[in-house]
Each structure stands twice: as structure tokens, then as C-alpha cells.
């Protein structure tokens, strides 16, 4: 055990941190593993044990301080590409059957026929008119 160089121990530590990273998906472990690799590089360049630990701590803390907030911001963002009914909101449709706020009607939206009703209970849209889809409730498009 005493014959193994310090940089090898740092790499073993990096691998030991990398395995739980894959299992638990905790990115902090990956940042600590990168800090251990930095410690291995320091050891390989002839730095003392104290310097190796300092480099490990600085790199690990810096990564956690910088990368973690960026990752949290990305995790909180809505997807750039809307799919499903979210993609239909804001689209234009053509009225096929008279649409009003009470009985509803039919529109052609994205090549498909949808039941629809007016957002404003007083508004009425005649066939052939273009409307904007505001919301989707179940299988009914709310238009204005």
C-alpha cells in the first residue's frame, strides 16, 4: 500500500465518487470527483499532501458554487419545444361550425377537427373565420 503514489489514490477516490454519482444521479459527487482528479494532477506534478488537499477543496467548492446554480436554473426552465396540447395554444384555427360561449361548435386546428367554445360567453364566430386558440380543456379548444 505504501508503494502506491499519491496521484493513484486520488484517482481511486475520483472513481469511488464517480460510482455513486452514476447510481444516485447526484451531480455534487461528480464535482467532488473532478476535485479529486485535480488533486491527482497536483500530486503527479510533485505537490505536497497539503497542497493536494487544498487544490481538491478549492476545485470542488468552486464547481459546486458555479455549476450547481446553473444546473438548478436549467432544471427550472420550461422546455423550449412545446409538445402535445401545449403546442396547440396560440395557434390559429378556422371555424367550421358556428362557435359560441354556450353550445360551442367545431374548428379545424392543425389539420384535425376539434370541438370548440368561445372564451367570451358573448362572442360568436361564424364558419370560415380565423380564431386563436387560447386554451385546451379536455378535447375542447377555447378560442377567441
TrEMBL record:
Q: What is this protein called?
A: NfeD family protein
Q: Which SUPFAM superfamilies match?
A: NfeD domain-like
Q: Which UniProt keywords apply?
A: Membrane, Transmembrane, Transmembrane helix
Locate the transmembrane regions by residue number: 7-26, 32-65
One family name in Pfam for this protein = NfeD
Which PANTHER family does the protein's record reference?
A: INNER MEMBRANE PROTEIN YBBJ (PTHR33507)
Q: What is the lineage of its organism?
A: Bacteria, Bacillati, Actinomycetota, Actinomycetes, Kitasatosporales
Entry's localization field: Membrane
Give the InterPro entries listed for this entry. Answer: Membrane_assoc_protease, NA-bd_OB-fold, NfeD-like_C
Where would I find the NfeD-like C-terminal domain in this sequence?
86-143
Membrane topology qualifier:
Multi-pass membrane protein
Amino acid at each position: 500500500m505504501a508503494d502506491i503514489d499519491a496521484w493513484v489514490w486520488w484517482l481511486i477516490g475520483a472513481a469511488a465518487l464517480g460510482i455513486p454519482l452514476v447510481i444516485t444521479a447526484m451531480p455534487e459527487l461528480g464535482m467532488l470527483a473532478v476535485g479529486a482528479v485535480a488533486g491527482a494532477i497536483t500530486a503527479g506534478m510533485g505537490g505536497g499532501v497539503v497542497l493536494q488537499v487544498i487544490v481538491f477543496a478549492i476545485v470542488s467548492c468552486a464547481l459546486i458554487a458555479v455549476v450547481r446554480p446553473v444546473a438548478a436554473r436549467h432544471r427550472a426552465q420550461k422546455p423550449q419545444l412545446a409538445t402535445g396540447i401545449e403546442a396547440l395554444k396560440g395557434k390559429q384555427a378556422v371555424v367550421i361550425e358556428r362557435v359560441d360561449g354556450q353550445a360551442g361548435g367545431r374548428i379545424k386546428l392543425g389539420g384535425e377537427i376539434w370541438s370548440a367554445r368561445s372564451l367570451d360567453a358573448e362572442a360568436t364566430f361564424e364558419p370560415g373565420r380565423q380564431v386563436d386558440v387560447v386554451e385546451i380543456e379536455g378535447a375542447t379548444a377555447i378560442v377567441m
